[in-house]
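DATA CLASS: polypeptide
GOAL: derive structure tokens

***
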Amino acid sequence: MLQIFEAVTVLHRRGYHRIRFVAMSSPSGLGVRMFVRRQSEVPGGHPREEFLDQVAHTSLNDADEPARDFADTSIPAWWSAEMIADQLLAVLPPISPLADDPAYAAELEELFEHHRAEGTVPLTERDAY
């Protein structure tokens, strides 16, 4: 999950500030649902109903998986954040790198750095973001 989160920060550094990363607990509380979509598709940090079937699920207790299905491919653990960012751009609906929301990009980068340092799961619904 942190790899994909980092890939979103890479996209923000490339100017794609309207791409959003959202991670929240599943209804059971035993897993995490992760979304990477355009801002218009996750208003207020919650995915619109028509995008719920495009959820990437990951379980909190299977972190040693050699690869994860996400963004129309199987992403192996060895992929770099740049490789994942390229894959995300390939499957997301078209978006331009306008670099028009630097405050969001900076806050998300800070949130990523906090979770990377702590080794924690980035549940954006719970964080002060």
In short: Residues 2-118 form one domain. DSSP finds three helices and five strands in the chain. The chain has a mean pLDDT of 81. The chain has one domain: 2-118.
